[in-house]
Each structure stands twice: as C-alpha cells, then as structure tokens.
Amino acid sequence: MIRAALAVLMLLTGPVAAQGVAEPEGYRGEPYRAPVPKTLAGAVVVDAGAAHDLWQGGEVAFVDVLPRPPKPANLPAGTLWRDKPRLSIPGAIWLPNTGYERIAPETETYLREGLAEVTGGDPNHPVLFFCLADCWMSWNAAKRALEMGYSEVYWFPEGTDGWDFEDHPLEKIEARAGEPGT
C-alpha cells in the first residue's frame, strides 16, 4: 500500500520537479538549447499571444539574438560559404552572438549600440528579447539588458518557433551592421 502511494506521488510530482528549471545566478552556458526557466527576475515573460500583441502595438523594440552559425573550419579551399538565412519577426533587429554566457568586450559594445539604436538611447523604452524555443541565448541577452539599465524588458522564451507555430508572419532579416568577427 505504501509502495503504491509512493509510486503515485512520484508520478504526480516527478515530472513537475524535472520541468522546473531554476534561474542561474549568472548567465547560462552550454548547452544553450535546453529547457529554460519560466521566469527572469526583473523581466516580464510573454507567450506568443502576448508577444504578438506587443508587436502589433508597435511600441516595443524586438531583438533577435539567435547566434550566427560559424563557418566550418574544415571546408576545403575554394568552397563557397553562405550563411543560413534568418527568418525572424518582422521589424526585429538581429544582434547575433550576444546571448552567450561570456561575450567579448566588442560583442558587448555591439549589443549596447544595437539596443541604443532600437530604443533611441532611452533605457526606459520597452524591449523584447527572443531566439528559438528552449534557447538560453535570449534569457542571457535579456538579463544583460536589465544589468545595462533597461527598465522595461520582455522575454519571449518560445522565440520564432512559438511565433511561427501561431502562424504569425516571419521575414528574412540581416544582422545589424558592425557585428564583431564579420
């Protein structure tokens, strides 16, 4: 009887405990594609419906932080390399590689300048960060924006996966000019 009760209790609480991802104190490192927390202290977490409402309102700057795939180091000489096109939320700015756990000073400057561009230099201007579903890049970048003094930060953890699932429009975008290493 007790064994059966424990089995039922484990069935009821086991998955919930396994799904609960705690916010780290600092930034999250590898693996970046993994379950994310339901919260980000200081930010407002939004789902696809709320993100779409914000997008339609036109008052929130949307910031895509999907990393740019690196050029393979072992390509034979003379091989042409073409970046994979990025389909993103229309009107978003793409600031690739700004969501890693550790970023170089040049990358932090690139992030700061990109945020200043889309917010008119106003740290009170609302800004929403996204990437893909279960991707820590947007969580890290949103946390950085909070630490940089941005006061109205939204985090959209479903990213373009959740956006596309709801049949909201996507468009091809290019990374903001000045990206370090390009």
Explain this structure to me?
The structure is a single chain. The radius of gyration is 19 Å and the shape is globular. α4 links the parallel β5 (127-130) and β6 (153-156). Helices cover 34% and strands 12% of the residues. Mean pLDDT is 88; it is low at 1-18. The chain has a domain at 43-69 and 83-175: 3-Layer(aba) Sandwich (Oxidized Rhodanese, domain 1), CATH 3.40.250.10. With 182 residues, it is of the alpha/beta class. The chain is built from five helices and seven strands. The longest helix is centred in the first third of the chain and has 18 residues, at 2-19. It has helices spanning 2-19, 48-57, 105-119, 136-147, 159-165; strands at residues 44-45, 61-64, 86-88, 93-94, 127-130, 153-156, 171-173. The strands form two sheets. It has a five-stranded parallel sheet, with helices on both faces.
How many helical stretches? 5
User: What is the H-and-E element order?
Assistant: HEHEEEHEHEHE
Residue share in helices? 25-40%
* Model regions low in confidence, pLDDT < 50 over at least 5 residues: 1-18
Number of strands: 7
Major beta sheet summary = 5 strands, parallel
CATH C-level label of the domain at 43-69 and 83-175: Alpha Beta
The outline comes out as globular
User: Beta-strand level of the residues, as a percent range?
Assistant: 5-15%
- Read across the widest sheet, the strand sequence of neighbours is 1-6-5-2-4
Radius of gyration: 19 Å
